[in-house]
Amino acid sequence: MAIALAPALILLACVFAYPVFDTVRLSLATWRGAGPVEWVGLANFGDVLSRPDFYRSVRTTFVFAVLVTVGTTGLALVLAAIASSATSRNSFYKFVWFLPAIAPPAALAVFWALSVQPGTGIVNVLIESFGGSASTAWLADPESALYVIVVVNVWIESAFAFLLILGAMEQVPVSLYEAGRLDGTSAAQRFWFITLPSIQPVLTIVVMLQFIWSFNGFTVVWAMTRGGPGDATQTLPVLLYREAFFFSNYGSAAAIGVLGSIVLIGVGIVAIRLSRSRAES
After folding, report:
1. What is the CA radius of gyration of the chain?
2. Are the C-beta atoms of residues 116 and 124 closer than 8 Å to each other?
3. Which range of residues forms the domain containing residue 255?
4. Burial class (CB within 10 angstroms; exposed 0-12, middle 13-18, buried 19+) of 27
5. Could you tell me which residues are beta bridge partners of residue 38?
6. Residue 161: which of 78, 220, 274, 237 has the closest Cα?
7. Is 108 inside any structural domain?
8. Is 150 within a domain?
9. CA 24 vs CA 28, 32, 247: distances in Å
10. Domain total in the chain
11. C-beta separation of 106 from 223 below 8 A
12. Spatial distance between the Cα atoms of 265 and 268, rounded to a whole number of angstroms
């Protein structure tokens, strides 16, 4: 058995264990991208934890991840409920709603960044046609930039969540819905008391995965605002990228990555315990 598992274990060590070990090792040193590595112990962590921009990035990351997770899961639930209903069971709708997942996220981010430009962006043009102002610089305003990126991420990432939730919904026995109809329940009651409890395990996985992906999200944020204006949209991945590739502080960047991983592990443990206690109750 051990010999049969050896190739898989070696591959797992190469693609997962070694990068994790090397990141932790680098977080205990200073390195400018070339030359010798100088060990500094926990100094990088002390430096990062004393920086106000780190805590602002943590707050921004949590707000971003929570909003994207709630928005993505909610939109995917609605789309899956529509697609799985008897009146709209059509593969065309499933294909259309999955389209955002096919295009590269960076290309979609650039498209939406151009779409919200003041004066010329299609979004502002549509707003102006309804009596609003076309001169709003959504991505240049610290109050609105993050929420624009959240909406774009929800639009992009709901496609995969939609497929998972739709697959779970289509596995719910039809007999449960028939029994509900015989009891005189409405469509909303059947969705709330039959569909949601039946897909709860898949829904929990979707929420957890979506939070992790959003917490580590980089491509859309960087392509649309590069963390600006100021640091209004600077999430932890953006802060880490800047620290490493703008300032060549690879040790501090690794420390930021380790701290972010610790936060995610903590959130994952809490989520798993809550889901287990809910399933047992």
Report:
1. 23
2. yes
3. 43-280
4. buried
5. 30
6. 78
7. yes
8. yes
9. 7, 16, 19
10. 1
11. yes
12. 5
Alpha carbon distance 191, 193 (integer Å): 6
Q: What is the DSSP string of 21-59?
A: HHHHHHHTEE--SSS--EE-TTHHHHHHHT-HHHHHHHH
Element (H, E) at 61: helix 52-84
Distance CA 101, CA 108 (A): 10
Say which CATH number the domain at 148 has.
1.10.3720.10
pTM, two decimals, is 0.89
- In this structure, what token pair is assigned to residue 180? 């509900």
Residue 121, both tokens: 């962006």
Among 118-132, 189-203, 220-234, which is the least confidently predicted range?
Answer: 118-132
C-alpha span between 99 and 186 (Å, rounded): 32
Q: For residue 112, tell me if it sits in a domain.
A: yes
Q: How confident is the model at residue 204 (pLDDT cuts 50, 70, 90)?
A: confident
Within-domain flag for 151:
yes
